[in-house]
# Entry
Amino acid sequence: MYPDPTSIVAIALVGLFATFAWLAYQRCAREARAWYADANYVVERPRTESRDTGPKRAPARRAMLDTGRLRAPALRATGPR
# Structure
């Protein structure tokens, strides 16, 4: 009438394993989302702002680059010379 104690232990172990596997998956998924969001983070300028005029903005851009808020490709000239 009662289930075998071995099967109860086996079911408990399977449940424990499934719980830890699910927690590990959640952590990996969270880290992957954070990495993906960080890899695609781009500082966008407002549309009303004029083009980068060069030396006037260079120190601020360099500071942003040093703090990691701006990526190196943004230092490239985007307009005609």
In short: The chain has two domains: 1-41, 50-81. The chain has two helices and no strands.
